[in-house]
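hey can u check if this looks right to u? its 77 residues, i copy pasted from the old doc so theres a chance i mangled smth
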Amino acid sequence: MPKVFDKDGYSFFFYSNDHTPIHIHVRRGDGEAVFVVEPDVELRESVGFNVRELSRAEELIHDHLELIKQKWAEHLG
């Protein structure tokens, strides 16, 4: 499970056998979500997060979008 980065208690990662489209998994506490990052950042699914937590996770994805794409290419491209 390649970890991309941690920030503010959120952990952003891929699974080793992930599939396209490019997306990122996010975990914090008991919550987990998946955001597609191309062509646009979009929530695909979520459990255990409230709206504020999802907004912060999405903001962090936007802040680290190039890193996410780079790591995807390195591990899964």
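The CA atoms of residues 26 and 67 lie 15 Å apart.
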